[in-house]
Write a structure and sequence with these properties.
The protein is an alpha+beta fold. The chain has helices at 10-13, 22-40, 42-47, and strands at residues 50-57, 64-67, 74-82, 85-94, 97-106, 111-114, 120-121, 127-138, 140-147. The protein starts with 9 loop residues before the first helix and ends with a strand.
């Protein structure tokens, strides 16, 4: 959508009888169209509330992989895992508390599990993935799908 027409001189918006001129009508119409265009983009802003937090671990070890002191609150919806070889177990945690439902057996098959509890983060919390039972795992990918309030 093009920007509105340049601001006209006040005298060109209305004629001597106080009626809107053609120039004034076109100007106000362009403002209306611009406002409607911006309003239609609000859905795009809402879509930014849902995003992913991703770990890619080329040579995984049995340990925690942590993002510390996250600056905002959010809710974890699901976790998807996969690796190119081997197996391991991945558990998503808030600080040191496991998120209910997010303990995945990682293998060469993509697996998605949905969180069922203990999945709300507060600003300042740490989010971590704990890998265990690592058996020749290579290129472990973990994606948490989250929503901001």
């Amino acid at each position: 959508m093009a920007d509105p027409l340049p601001l006209p001189q006040p005298a060109s918006l209305n004629d001597a009888k106080g009626q809107t001129t053609t120039h004034g009508y076109r100007y106000f119409d362009s403002l209306d169209r611009a406002a409607r265009d911006h309003e239609s983009r609000l859905g795009t802003v809402e879509a930014l509330k849902t995003f992913s937090i991703v770990w890619f671990i080329p040579a995984p070890l049995a340990q925690d992989y942590t993002y510390i002191n996250l600056p905002y609150a959010f809710t974890v919806n699901s976790m998807t895992t996969k690796c190119t070889a081997g197996t391991c177990t991945a558990v998503a945690k808030i600080n040191s508390t496991a998120i209910t439902g997010l303990s995945n057996s990682v293998s060469t098959t993509e697996v998605t599990n949905n969180a069922s509890g203990a999945n709300a983060f507060a600003a300042g919390d740490d989010i971590k993935i704990t890998l265990s039972d690592v058996s020749s795992s290579v290129n472990v990918s973990v994606t948490l799908n989250v929503t901001r309030p």
